[in-house]
Amino acid sequence: MDFDLSADQKLFRSTTRSFLQKEATLEKIRELSDAGGGFDRDWWTRAGELGWVAMLVPEELGGGSVSGEGVRDLTIVAEELGRLVAPGAFLATNVVIAGLVEASGDGPDHSEAIEALMSAEAIGTWAVYDEGAGWDPLSPKVTAKEAQGSYVIDGVKDRVELADQADYVLVTAATDQGPTQFLVPTSATGLGIDLSWSLDMVRHFARVSFDSVEVPASAVVGQVGGAADLIERQLQIAAVLQCAETCGALEAVFEFTTQWAFDRFSFGRPLASYQALKHRFADMKMWLEACQATTSAAAHAVQDRSEDAAELVSVAKSYVGSKSLVIIQDCVQMHGGLGVTWEHDLHLFLRRATVNQAFYGTPEDHRRRIADLIAL
Amino acid sequence: MTDTITTGEITESVEDFRLRARAWLADNMPKVDPNFKPPPPGDDDAEWQRTRELQKMLHAGGFAGIHFPKEYGGLGLSPEHQAAFTEESDGYQMPLLLNVPTFSICAPTILDMGSEEQKRERLSAAIRGDEIFVQFLSEPSGGSDLAGLITRADRDGDTWVLNGAKTWSTSAYAADWALCLARTDWDAPKHRGLTMFLIRTDSPGIDMRRIRQVNGSTEFCGEFFDDVVLPADAVVGEVNNGWAVASRQLFHERTAVGGGSPFTSGRGNGRGATPRTKLADVARLAGRAGDPTVRAMVGEHRAMERVQEQLIARVTEGIKTEAMPPPAASLMRLFHAEADWMREDMAISIGGPFVVAGTDSEPGLGGRAGINYLMRQGASLGGGSSEMSRNIISERILGMPREFAADRDMPFSQVKRGPS
Questions:
Q1: Are B308 and B336 spatial neighbours (Cβ–Cβ below 8 Å)?
Q2: Tens of pLDDT, residues A236-277
Q3: Is A48 within a domain?
């Protein structure tokens, strides 16, 4: 959590928190999971009314944020979602919106889609991982071939977040002119969606196949062959929101684990009185504060479009990605056997953090990207 | 305790003071030579001489001791005046070596706790550039347990006789006076039998030796006291209330380390340091810059450095706005150690044989990385150990129970100090 939130941002945080505490409790997550995951579309529309997907959209396109700093406002929502490992299309839709807004005025008009997405009537998701491939967004294997003013898309993307519930996929494809992004309705002929297994309780992933899916040239986002800058923007937004969500999860886990250390007695004394454990809590506290510091710095840099935004995003993504797992696993250890039971909530958080660190580049991918950026 | 007092006079505004300082600096102070590199600590006698000269120049110009009270030789101006002078002094040679510990730690402690005479004489002499101060706190018999010290001062008529040993005194070889904490009552519990003394570092009976560290630095000293006779007026504060003085001293030390002292003039502490190992250079030296594993390591360490800056900014802001309690400073302290460990460990991992044996008669880039590795634990030890930081974080931030202390409320003479 940032120390310098404005009064409006604090109010927004508490509105977001009370909505989630009422509508997305951990019990609810378990119920949703038992019912197959995902979430209720009416619920998502009501969440959208709180502004969760309008913050990156400029006012002239009908959007708006709490503070005028949309990226930072979104991190407030992300943290609150993380505290309750909530469901929803927050990350997926905001990433698509980031790409569409970035491209607006440069290429075909997508304002109708933006309007549907930002009102939470429609859900969007980024289809970026090629079937069986690692994180390499600039070398897509799905192809788009131009034919008489339209494009024909072929190939398979997998690990596409919420594709089963999405109305639009933003697909990154190879054209003769280079990587290009297309906004494709999931209702398009030849587009197939198969739900796949996910470690997360409610966050679905799916395989999306394109079997000669024909889209008009107006489906292009930005310029043909000009996807690189859009992909960078989408990555930056995705990574900052993931980090903020993970920070929220870490805060929640660290709070209840610290409380546990005071309440649980062994050999007649609380766990919190053992130096061997106190020292581990001290390390965890330090890592947690460091995760928050780097997430906040990355959010500011992306918000301000600082020169070093790409580096700071990879710094946060790699640091939070790996340290979050160290912290949560140590919290599992502090709970003893309880920590690995289905009944305890720890695994809900561990699942979300593990998913977050893996997508849009692993910590190691981002460390190599930092090495590239510092010209090693 | 250190509020500026101006009675019956109109204080010059910060802006007027700044303009006057700007003009004076331009006319009187030499510019920093851009090619100048400070010599390694311990090998810097000429620098200390130069420092005294620069302080005398500031004093002659009426710009020394800006935030110290007038009656003790200062200008009696506000921290904002001092900050303005520091900003204007950028690019000029300044007596930065006096910033820590003389002006930021020792002088404010004397100002808070010293006698009228100590304040008048010592503070004005330091401000004139005639005297340099040092702290005699740590002892060879114990590091983290400062209040468990065993250097003794025994009354002998009107005087005190000092025996024992101190260690880790920074640049003591260059100092004239020391704040020395000693035990004066062995029947009181440990915190209540201590007295602070202000002693001349060249007093008969003091044997000062350089400590040579594994990287060759001789910045720190150790002192042995053999019947050193101290006059009654060497006591700072009350007899047996030395812990109160030491607490102020530690407060000023933390403030200084955090960069928040209103008594320092000019930016930095003027100390050269052994250059840190740069992992990208080690990777190139070892011919491994293209190795994906090595690239990930270099990227990970770069991330660690950035996160360290970001954590410092967050904690500093948190303490300033009271969103975090002051002991949160230990978070920065502990992270610093972790970041240093990562750097040194990766250096030897990436460098392999290139950091342990040279191809030349000099250590070179690889050899310097190897020598730095020998000092890997430095950041986990200096200014309190990492283990003490973890105690502070868990107890004073997370509120966990304090460690058991076998010596609590026990007469110090009965406290066990060894296995038998």
A1: yes
A2: 999 999 999 999 999 999 999 999 999 999 999 999 999 999
A3: yes
> Is A296 within 8 Å of chain B by CB?
yes
pLDDT per position as a tens digit, B394-419: 999 999 999 999 999 999 999 998 89
Structure tokens at A361: 């580049």
In the predicted structure, residue B6 carries a pLDDT above the cut 80: no
Distance, in Å, from the CA atom of B337 to the CA atom of B376, rounded to the nearest integer, reads 9
Q: Is A116 on the interface with B (CB under 8 A)?
A: no
Nearest CA in chain B to A375: B280
pLDDT at B291 over 60: yes
> Pick from B299, B310, B393: which is nearest to A293 by CB?
B310
Residues of B in contact with A312 (CB under 8 A): 306
Q: What is the CATH number of the domain that holds A264?
A: 1.20.140.10
Is residue A2 one of the residues assigned to a domain? Answer: no
Tell me the β-bridge partners of B99.
none
What angle is formed at CA A269 by the lines to CA A265 and CA A272, rounded to 5 degrees?
80
Q: What is the phi-psi region of residue B129: left when phi exceeds 0, alpha when psi lies from -120 to 50, beta otherwise?
A: left
3-state secondary structure of B188: coil
Which of the following CATH numbers is that of domain B279-397: 1.10.1040.10, 1.10.1660.10, 1.20.140.10, 1.10.10.10? 1.20.140.10
* pLDDT mean across residues, chain A: 96
pLDDT at res. B2? 43
Percent of chain B with pLDDT over 90: 80
Q: State mean pLDDT over B147-162.
A: 97
CB contact under 8 A, B331 and A285: yes
Q: What is the pLDDT of residue B189?
A: 97
Q: Please, which residues 292-351 of chain B have a Cβ atom closer than 8 Å to chain A?
A: 292, 295-300, 302-304, 306-307, 310-311, 313-315, 317-318, 321, 323, 331, 334-335, 338
Average pLDDT, chain B: 93
For residue B314, the chain A residues in CB contact (below 8 A) are: 3, 289, 292-293, 296
pLDDT in tens, A29-49: 999 999 887 899 999 999 999
Q: Report, at the CATH architecture level, how domain B14-97+113-130 is classified.
A: Orthogonal Bundle (1.10)
Does the CB of A265 have a partner CB in chain B at under 8 Å? Answer: no
CATH dotted code for B135-257: 2.40.110.10
Q: What are phi and psi of B133, to 5 degrees?
A: -110, 160
Q: Do B323 and A376 touch (CB under 8 A)?
A: no
Give the separation between CA B21 and CA B15, rounded to whole angstroms. 10
Q: Does residue A1 sit within a domain?
A: no
Contact call for A261 and B321, based on CB within 8 A: no
Residue A312, chain B, CB below 8 Å: the answer is yes
Q: How far apart are the first and last CA of chain B?
A: 45
Q: Is the pLDDT of residue B7 over 70?
A: no
Pairing of the two strands A178-185 and A220-221: antiparallel
Q: What's residue A36's pLDDT?
A: 85
Q: Does A364 touch chain B (CB under 8 A)?
A: yes
* Strand pairing report for A178-185 and A168-175: antiparallel
**In this complex, do B297 and A367 lie within 8 Å of one another by their Cβ atoms?**
yes
Residues of the domain holding A254: 228-373
A326 touching chain B per CB within 8 A: no
| CATH number of the domain bearing residue A180 | 2.40.110.10
What pLDDT shows up at residue B361?
Answer: 86
